[in-house]
Specification:
By secondary structure, the protein is mainly α. The protein has one domain. The chain is built from three helices and no strands. Helix 2 runs antiparallel to helix 3. The longest helix is centred in the C-terminal third of the chain and has 28 residues, at 53-80. The radius of gyration is 16 Å and the shape is elongated.
């Protein structure tokens, strides 16, 4: 087994574990959001191993970075009870 295959299998296992943590996050919503962000980050590493650097950069920027930030931003507004009044 080559190093690339072993690393790919390890990343796939980590992605599955983090995805389960994100879906079944009973401790807190923040841990679920971080787990989902890490899934995106590990998926970008997987795309890099598969020789798709453009997809890896997009996944890292949008899939893990921007989406995680947006989830935490909305979670903070919901917890404070802020809304724009257009409902």
């Amino acid at each position: 087994m080559t190093l690339t295959i072993a690393l790919g299998l390890l990343l796939a296992l980590a992605i599955v574990v983090l995805a389960v943590m994100a879906v079944r996050g009973k401790r807190s919503l923040g841990i679920s959001i971080l787990s989902a962000g890490l899934v995106g980050l590990l998926a970008s590493v997987m795309f890099l191993l598969l020789a798709a650097p453009d997809v890896a950069m997009t996944e890292a920027a949008i899939g893990s970075g921007l989406t995680t930030f947006l989830f935490f931003f909305v979670l903070g507004r919901v917890r404070r009870g802020e809304h724009d009044g257009n409902l």
